[in-house]
Structures are given as structure tokens and as C-alpha cells.
Specification:
Layout (H helix, E strand, L loop, with lengths): L6 H20 L3 E2 L11 H10 L1 E4 L5 H17 L25 E4 L33 E6 L6 H7 L2 H11 L4 E10 L7 E4 L18 E6 L10 E2 L10 H8 L8 E2 L7 E5 L4 E3 L8 E9 L1 H4 L16 H21 L20 H6 L11
Parallel strand pairs: 1-2
Antiparallel strand pairs: 2-10, 3-4, 4-5, 5-12, 6-11, 7-10, 7-12, 8-9, 8-11
Helix pairs in contact: 3-4, 4-8
């Protein structure tokens, strides 16, 4: 295999990964989704999540759900645009999503960091990550992110309606929680690009009632698992306020932040990560792929009356009508899951209790470009 990074830095990188893994596994922030006899979410999780800013729910997805997602991912990548500006797939057919208004497929040059140290995404990635030497057999670009993923994958839509995960969203953000956005992150083996250290929130840092949960959270379901080689890295406890990422990098002497830990997950685990936590990922020089099904939720009070940040959606004020229209996707997801898993007790989403939703072909048509209504703060 072609060498992908400087041999002089290889041992230091391996030592960093090993030390980070040891720190991660010592944290008290992993376990199954559990409820007490009253249906209340286990408060051990809440205490750990509030302390660290992230938690790993173990064995959430069974083998059948993982197989459904894997099949959809293979189909999606087969039908995706063949390159950054292409309207056709690798077979010359019209590409998936070519007729949509939204830009849903994101490509990067292999092992690159396209946003670190730039003003892109409101400048929230202030420091560029190390870019390893690119193998000679690398393509010009690799697919790294798929936005609006629920319109492309029924398996992802059904996961979005998972009753246990929606109950967690209620416990964290209240029964009137609101959606954020959904994406699929694909870290291609040997070629996957990095995502520079950042905090997701951009618009709510100065609000009078700001606290550690103001910018919401993301669920991160793992198809193949992840580790220190190919996974997300998080700085535990960094979700309480705006961090000086440039200073953190300077203090660390490199892009390998002191005290950061990798997300360690098995296939079927689902992490919850506070959007205010400092996090990022290194280029994937390993031979292990990572596919993360990402979907987030907000407190309603954080988005109602707020102006969008322009990163995930237009810079406009979110009113009740806008939030309701975007929340319909939750209703469709719950219905789609019921059809696939009738033995489960479906989640009852309070803001839609007076409305009936059925997943069918008409509903599928309604999902086209749904992510143009994302609630980005």
C-alpha cells in the first residue's frame, strides 16, 4: 500500500490514538438506552451526557436494521453523482437527486481539509488540519457527505423514527423538541478527508438564557463502527460555552488536541453529541470505512423566533409554521417505521398529536427538497 503520511510523524500519531482510546474507554459514558418502570429515561445517562457532552448508546440497531441501511448505502453510492459537478452517476444515468434544488452531495479531495482555516461555514473551523500525503492511486474527489438523506434512504427514514432515540430526544430537549438536519457522513478508507475542529452552534452564544444545551445535539448511528483511526474526536466537557479553538491548537502544539478522545463505537451503536462540544475528525488513512447516519434535534425555544445561520438553510426567521412544516418528517418517519416494525410501540410526538401521517408514495413526493427547511442555528 502507498504510504499516506510522513514516517517521522507515524509513531507520534499512533501514540496519540492509543492514549486517546484509553481516555475514551475510561469515561462513564456508554451503555444501552434504558427506561425505568415509569417510562422515564435512565438518569445515569443524563448525568454523564451533561458532564461530558456526549454518550454512546450501545446495540441500538439490530442486524436487520444494519442490513437495511447497508443495502441503502450501497444503492445510494451507486446512484450518486459521479463527481462534484456531475448530473449523471457512474453508469451514465441521471444521478440521484439531480432534479432537486438542494445541493445534497458533498465531495472532497482525498485526505484534504477543505474548510479548516477558512471563512467557510461562518468561520467556525478556524485552524486547518494536517493533510497527509495522498496515495498515487487516489481519485480526484471522494464522496464525503450526503445531505437531506431521508429522501434518499427509506432505512435512514425508519431509523429517524426509532422510538427509543426519539424518547431520548424528548428527555434532553423536551416533548416539543424540533428537528435540525440529517446527513450521512462517509469516511472513505485511505482517502476520506478531515473535518477541522469546530463547535456546531453559531447563532445562540449570546442569548440571555444560554446554557450547555442551547444549540441542540446530533445522533450519530454507526453502520460499521468507528475508532481512533477513522472516527470523530471530541473534547469532553467543552460544550459549556464558546471555545478558543486556535488557543487549544496552539497549546497542544499541533492539530492533535490535548485531552480529546475518539468516539469508540461498534456497528449498531448510536452516539449522542452535544453540538456545542468541540469536535472534529482526522483524514482517514486507515483501510476501515466509516458510515455515520447523522440526525439532530433542538429545543423548540432555541429555534422559535431565531434566524437561521445560512449554513444548513437560508438565513430567515423560524416561526411556528416553518417549524411545523419541517417537523412533518418526524411523522412520516414514525409511520415508515411502523410499517417495517409493527411489533414496536411507536413513539408519540407531541407537536403532531392532532395530525395523522402515513408513509406512502405521496408522502415520498412531499419529502423532495425537505432539507431546504432545515433549522440551522
Amino acid at each position: 500500500m502507498t504510504q499516506t503520511f510522513d514516517a517521522l510523524s507515524e509513531q507520534a500519531l499512533q501514540d496519540y490514538r492509543l492514549a486517546g482510546t484509553e481516555r475514551a474507554l475510561k469515561l462513564d459514558n456508554r451503555g444501552p438506552i434504558q427506561f425505568d418502570e415509569t417510562g422515564r429515561l435512565d438518569q445515569t445517562f443524563m448525568a454523564s451526557y451533561l458532564a461530558h457532552g456526549f454518550y454512546v448508546f450501545e446495540n441500538v440497531l439490530d442486524s436487520h436494521e444494519l442490513a437495511d441501511i447497508e443495502a441503502d448505502m450501497a444503492d445510494l453510492q451507486n446512484r450518486a453523482p459521479s463527481g462534484p459537478k456531475s448530473l449523471t452517476d457512474i453508469h451514465g444515468r441521471p444521478a440521484l437527486g439531480a432534479e432537486l434544488k438542494g445541493k445534497n452531495f458533498g465531495w472532497v479531495a482525498p485526505l484534504s481539509d477543505p474548510v479548516g482555516g477558512t471563512e467557510r461555514n461562518d468561520g467556525r473551523h478556524p485552524v486547518k488540519m494536517h493533510e497527509p500525503v495522498v496515495p498515487t492511486d487516489a481519485p480526484k474527489h471522494v464522496l464525503q457527505i450526503v445531505l437531506g438523506s431521508l429522501q434518499f434512504s427509506d432505512a435512514c427514514l425508519r431509523l429517524y423514527g426509532h422510538p427509543g432515540l426519539l424518547a431520548v430526544a424528548e428527555a434532553v430537549n423536551g416533548p416539543d423538541f424540533a428537528p435540525f438536519n440529517e446527513a450521512i457522513w462517509i469516511k472513505q478508507p485511505r482517502f476520506g478527508g478531515s473535518v477541522a475542529w469546530h463547535q456546531d452552534g453559531t447563532t445562540q452564544w449570546d442569548r440571555p438564557d444560554f446554557d450547555s444545551g442551547t444549540h441542540g445535539f446530533n445522533f450519530m448511528a454507526q453502520l460499521y463502527g468507528c475508532d481512533a483511526d477513522n472516527g470523530l474526536w471530541i473534547l469532553p466537557g467543552s460544550h459549556g460555552g464558546k471555545a478558543d479553538i486556535k488557543a487549544l491548537v496552539a497549546d497542544s502544539g499541533s492539530d492533535r488536541l490535548n485531552d480529546a478522545v475518539p468516539l469508540i463505537c461498534k456497528p449498531g451503536d448510536v452516539a449522542i453529541c452535544n453540538r456545542q462540544a468541540v469536535h472534529g475528525s482526522f483524514a482517514n488513512t486507515s483501510v476501515k470505512p466509516r458510515v455515520t447516519i447523522n440526525f439532530g434535534f433542538h429545543r423548540r425555544q432555541s429555534v422559535l423566533g431565531a434566524k437561521g445561520n445560512g449554513i444548513h438553510s437560508a438565513s430567515e426567521v423560524y416561526d411556528e409554521a416553518r417549524i411545523f412544516k419541517r417537523s412533518k418528517v418526524i411523522g412520516y418517519a414514525i409511520s415508515a417505521r411502523v410499517k417495517r416494525r409493527p411489533e414496536e410501540e411507536p413513539y408519540a410526538y407531541q407537536p403532531l398529536k392532532a395530525h395523522k401521517f402515513e408513509w406512502n408514495e405521496a408522502a415520498r413526493a412531499n419529502l423532495q427538497d425537505y432539507n431546504l427547511l432545515d433549522l440551522g442555528i
